[in-house]
From TrEMBL:
Its cofactor is Mg(2+). Involved in the glycolate utilization. Catalyzes the condensation and subsequent hydrolysis of acetyl-coenzyme A (acetyl-CoA) and glyoxylate to form malate and CoA. GO terms for cellular component: cytosol. Pfam families: MS_C (PF20659), MS_N (PF20656), MS_TIM-barrel (PF01274), MSG_insertion (PF20658). This is Malate synthase G. PANTHER family: MALATE SYNTHASE G.
């Protein structure tokens, strides 16, 4: 049991309290006693409301479960189903015509189109890299990935053959994006001679080269004949640097493992560091120690000789956790744990208040109105009443921190079925602070399975991608967003590319996100951001948004993806189970035993896939669904888990800190994985957090016992 210190009616982890009082409150001139008193008052109001919303989720779910159970074996009656959903309040009336009223939004969010990067907050090295991913080297991205269709680089230094292919691809990009009045960029021997077909694309000179703009995004063509690349290039071009991640989501949610005060404090500390602008991280790379810090702005000399600056960093959002979890970092007066989403809202906003007040080194939010915003992404909200709760909570946080109304903006993850089905009403509930709707299709798939758990066995996981509900969900998100005036005021975003090593495939497929009307879409890494930026040069999203088709209705959206037949062969069943079990175990072992919330886990074909809590929700719910409906037996599931545990052990054999799972009855990770599947049907909305947190806390305890009091895994 951790020690606590008393603050107003709350009991607070002492180290967290000291951090808040020393580093968060003084810069914003908040008196500590006043802060704790108002925090306690806010909790007294919002914690019970939060609990009631969770009870409502459970009540709706049990009514839906019962409805399906009562109709087992009967054909699905679409209209009866929708009437029922209306009767129980799962579906609500749409709010009618309205336009969002959000103000003081940075251009990167409101009027520009470009990639959105996501980064786990607990990894400072990645976090700094992500914030700096506003600019990325196209040459590095092409040289190092399969986005370039050329033989792979030979090991041992610079491979000039591959380098030549990169240069040639770079020239193609320049011809496409910045066409010359005549001829090709390949013909130039001196960039100063470049005469653009549209001279308005030229912006000025930078430290190393010439700056252009196309579709609102900048391109820095750098010239340096002393570099290995520049010396082989006709015009001395050493790199083409693209404006890449316009925005980055700093994630406190599904890509991190944060289960107690210590983890949460690190999360808040890293957020404070990037907001204040002084976060630094030293690490070993390529045999030497590097120190990474935030990049400064890019200096530009305009054609008339005046000096200007472009932002050197992504505009940062912070993704708070949803309404479900609680955390032992703070206890309420009745001894219960604080709702974690409320703690995140208060503390991440208090940190960002330094930015709003203009006390930070660079400034995260700097809209043209001069009134800065705090950008919070709110995940996993179920329907309009939960969005209204968030709106009220943010009002209360603003009052607590003496912020103007609607300073705190919200990005709504459209990733739960009740939200997709009532999206207009959800937007309405946060209409004066909304800055994005993003289709989190991974969580959304997990919720699709869990909501209709009793309806029958689901189609195979790969088939979900072409299911009716998914197409309708994606199209409705854009259509409803446009209907309520998000274009030009807020982002309409699309989901993650979860295959960090398949950049060639991403280049072919992810342009579809723009064509379907999204002005941003998620990428897993800075390299992916730079490559995905090319798509925003190829297509003008704001023009495309004008010509989109009909918005699909509810019928398609609510089509349940149950399989039409279940006569899968033994081999197909095993393949499906193994695929799910491998991703699940490969992810869970690192979460529970190493505190890593996002991992690249090789699939059965050895392709590294990004796994996070949302992908875990899908695999665990899918296995639970097939087990529940007798498509597979408990023995088959266990057999798959055991075989895949051995495979995951093999994949981690080089890690000296890894504890094998196969054949170890005490393996905490394996027990966690089993729970996620065998107790899957009972998990709230199919979420994995409750079990992951419990098992991670157990793992921390075991290590602490072994190493002595006070020690922890991290
Ligand atoms: C459903 C959802 O909610 S999706 C949102 C949650 N998902 C995410 O946030 C994905 C974030 N991405 C990641 O965590 C990682 O890219 C992973 C785990 C997928 C792969 O990580 P790794 O195997 O370490 O990547 P890999 O070895 O290919 O590359 C590491 C390099 O790329 C950088 N990098 C990789 N991902 C990121 C990122 N998201 N942000 C910043 N830098 C990154 C690292 O800093 C490192 O470079 P460095 O050595 O100069 O520091
Ligand atoms: O948060 C994103 C998702 O796909 O889930
Ligand atoms: Mg999600």
């Amino acid at each position: 049991m951790p020690d606590y210190t008393n603050r107003a009616s709350l009991r607070v982890d002492p180290s967290l309290a000291a951090f808040i009082e020393a580093e968060i409150l003084p810069p914003i001139e908040q008196d500590a006693d006043v802060f704790w008193k108002s925090f306690a008052d806010l909790l007294a109001d919002f914690a019970p409301r939060n609990r009631a919303l969770l009870e409502r989720r459970e009540s709706l779910q049990s009514q839906i479960d019962a409805w399906h159970r009562e109709r087992k074996g009967q054909p699905h009656d679409t209209s009866a189903y929708q009437n029922f959903l209306r009767e129980i309040g799962y579906l609500v009336e749409e709010p009618g015509d309205f336009t969002i009223g959000t103000q003081n939004v940075d251009a990167e969010i409101a009027t520009m189109a470009g990639p959105q990067l996501v980064v786990p907050v607990l990894n400072a090295r990645f976090l700094l890299n992500a914030a700096n991913a506003r600019w990325g080297s196209l040459y590095d991205a092409l040289y190092g990935t399969d986005a370039l269709d050329a033989p792979p680089a030979k090991p041992g230094g610079y491979d000039q053959k591959r380098g030549d292919a990169v240069i040639s691809e770079g020239r193609k990009f320049l011809d496409e994006t910045l066409p010359l009045a005549s001829g090709s960029w390949s013909d130039l021997t001196d960039i100063a001679d470049a005469k653009l077909a549209d001279p308005g694309q030229y912006v000025g000179t930078t430290e190393r080269g010439f700056l252009y703009r196309h579709n609102g995004l900048h391109i820095d063509v750098q010239v340096d004949r002393t570099t290995p690349v520049g010396e082989t290039d006709r015009a001395g071009i050493s790199d083409i640097v693209l404006e890449s991640a316009l925005t980055t989501i700093v994630d406190l949610e599904d890509s991190v493992a944060a289960v107690d005060a210590k983890d949460k404090q690190l999360a808040y500390r890293n957020w404070l560091g990037v907001i204040r602008g002084d976060l630094e991280e030293s690490f070993e790379k390529g045999g030497r120690t590097m120190t990474r810090e935030l990049a400064g702005n890019k200096a530009v000399t305009l054609p008339d000789g005046t000096q200007a600056e472009l932002p050197g960093r992504s505009v940062l959002f912070v993704r708070n956790v949803g309404h479900l979890m609680t955390n032992p970092a703070i206890l309420l007066s009745d001894g219960s744990e604080i709702p974690e989403g409320i703690m995140d809202a208060v503390l991440t906003s208090a940190i960002s208040t330094q930015d709003v007040r203009g006390f930070t080194r660079y400034g995260n939010s700097r809209p043209s109105s001069g009134k800065a915003s705090i950008y919070i992404v709110k995940p996993k909200m179920h329907g309009p009443e939960e969005c209204a709760f968030t709106n009220d909570l943010f009002d209360a946080v603003e009052d607590m921190l003496a912020l103007d109304r609607h300073t705190i903006k919200v990005g709504v993850m459209d990733e739960e079925r009740r939200t997709s089905a009532n999206l207009g009403a959800c937007i309405h509930a946060v209409r004066d602070r909304i800055v994005f709707i993003n289709t989190g299709f991974l969580d959304r798939t997990g919720d699709e399975i869990h909501t209709s758990m009793e309806a029958g066995p689901m189609v195979r996981k790969a088939e979900m991608k072409s299911a009716d509900w998914l197409g309708a969900y994606e199209a409705r998100n854009v259509g409803i967003g446009l209907r309520h005036g998000l274009s030009g005021r807020a982002q309409i975003g699309k989901g993650m590319w979860p295959a960090p090593d398949l950049m060639g495939k991403m280049m072919t497929e992810k342009i579809g996100h723009l064509r379907s009307g999204a002005n941003t879409a998620w990428v897993p890494s800075p390299t992916a951001a730079t490559l995905h930026a090319i798509h925003y040069h190829r297509e003008n999203v704001f023009e495309l948004q004008q010509g989109l088709g009909e918005v699909p209705g509810l019928d398609k959206l609510l089509t349940i993806p149950v399989a039409t037949g279940t006569n899968w062969s033994e081999e197909e069943l095993r393949e499906e189970l193994d695929n799910n079990a491998q991703g699940l175990l490969g992810y869970v072992v690192r979460w529970v035993e190493h505190g890593v919330g996002c991992s690249k886990v090789p699939d059965l074909d050895d392709v590294g896939l990004m796994e996070d809590r949302a992908t875990l929700r899908i695999s665990s719910q899918h296995m639970a669904n097939w087990l529940h409906h007798g498509v597979v037996t408990r023995d088959q599931v266990m057999d798959s888990l055991q075989r895949m545990a051995a495979k995951v052990d093999e994949q981690n054999a080089d890690d000296p800190n890894y504890r094998p799972m196969a054949g170890d009855p005490d393996s905490i990770a394996f027990k966690a994985a089993c729970d996620l599947v065998f107790k899957g049907t009972q998990q709230p909305s199919g979420y994995t957090e409750p079990l992951l947190h419990a098992w991670r806390q157990e793992a921390k305890k075991v290590v602490s016992l072994k190493r002595g009091p006070g020690s922890q895994i991290r």
